[in-house]
Amino acid sequence: MTALRLLLVDDDVLVRSGLRVILESEPDLTVVGDAGSGREALAVAADTDPDVVLMDVRMPDMDGIAATAELVARDPQRPRVLVLTTFEDDDYLFRSLQAGASGFALERSDPDSLVGAIRVVARGTSLVLPDLTRRLIASHAPSRARGPAALPELTGREADVLRLVAGGLSNAEIATELFLSRETVKTHVSSVLLKLGARDRTQAVIAAYESGFMTG
């Protein structure tokens, strides 16, 4: 089993130390670096090639939103960014997702929930905190068009899949809902992401709401 490579980014050294202890106790996770600011994170990420970056939002020098946007600009596919926050500021969280973050988790989450969120982000087969993520996007994404016609490139089945992805369902749940195999669902999800120009499910959900395909 190849361990997921993690980069920890937080301006509090004690938080980084605590996260390292928790995460390195897992056999499938390894911390390859840490940073105390967004700008430092960019340099460390270039040197360590992480799979997932755990990113604080509010930091000196360069905040987590700007650092996330820069990481995505460098490579649209990896690393995935999981935003860590001690507060529930919807505007900051939505801006992080817009910048390209794949999900978010509260720093006060219990270790099992945090580890689970990292694995979800790495696999990309479902949303992190799906109900909360969906509500956040639905309430903050401005609609620029109305109805399914806003996404004319999708086939009927792809539209069904996007609707369920935007509803927070995992690949396994979509397979059950549509009476399809998981492999078929995975193929449809990949096609939807490609057509929408979305790097992951979270970005596809944002596109679905911003286009008017999904409404609150």
TrEMBL record:
Annotated ranges, domain HTH luxR-type: 147-212
Gene Ontology molecular function terms on file: DNA binding
Residue list for modification 4-aspartylphosphate: 56
Region forming the signal peptide: none
SUPFAM superfamilies to which the protein is assigned, alphabetical: C-terminal effector domain of the bipartite response regulators, CheY-like
Keywords attached to this entry: DNA-binding, Phosphoprotein, Transcription, Transcription regulation
Annotated ranges, domain Response regulatory: 5-122
Transmembrane helix in keyword set: no
DNA-binding in keyword set: yes
Gene3D superfamilies, alphabetized: 3.40.50.2300
Superkingdom to which the source organism belongs: Bacteria
Name this protein carries in UniProt: LuxR family transcriptional regulator
